[in-house]
Amino acid sequence: MTTFQRTLVACVGIGLCLAAGSDRSLAAEPSQAAPKAAAVSVLPMKELMGHVIQHSAQEMWKWQGWVTDSAGHRSLFPKNDEEWEEAESAALTLSEVITVLLHPEHRLSFPDWDANVQLVRKVARQAAAAAEKHDETAFFSIGEQLDEACESCHRAAGLVK
User: Fold this and answer.
1) Is residue 118, in this structure, part of any structural domain at all?
2) What is the pTM of this model?
3) How many beta carbons lie within 10 A of that of residue 113, not counting itself?
4) How many angstroms separate the Cα of 81 from the Cα of each of 57, 77, 93, 134, 157?
5) Domain count along the chain
6) Contact at 8 Å (CB) between 92 and 145?
7) How far apart are alpha carbons 54 and 47 in whole angstroms?
8) Which residues does 107 contact at the CB level (< 8 Å), separation at least 6?
9) What is the pLDDT of residues 69-91, one digit of tens each?
10) Contact 85/118 with Cβ under 8 angstroms?
11) Count of CB atoms within 10 A of residue 136's CB?
């Protein structure tokens, strides 16, 4: 390594150390930061429910239950830490995605709309906690509760009988 290269590496290293330890008070104040754009969904409710929310729920439910087919009887539950992590991530994704239904452009005007949305969110978070613990029984039971919470909201909205 040449003297120039060593000097360059040393300068970069010192610069990184100084930047890492710099006084945070020099950072831009929140009022000086660029204004945040308002979050607006462009999807109609039918597409939001079918392509985003239902998809998120299916990503969690695919890890639950059993299948009997020509290959025999088998469990759909996660088999290892990586798969349990995927199941947990799917449940957490649903718990966050569902909050879009609280935005004015997606809020439906029927009693308990917010409570129904919050119930789905709560149950999805419980599913994530069960997945984190690798608890098949709780994960499956909570999956049923999620289905019931979704169906209850759909009935209240007049989407199913």
Assistant:
1) yes
2) 0.72
3) 17
4) 20, 11, 18, 8, 38
5) 1
6) no
7) 10
8) 101, 113, 114
9) 999 999 999 999 999 999 999 99
10) no
11) 16
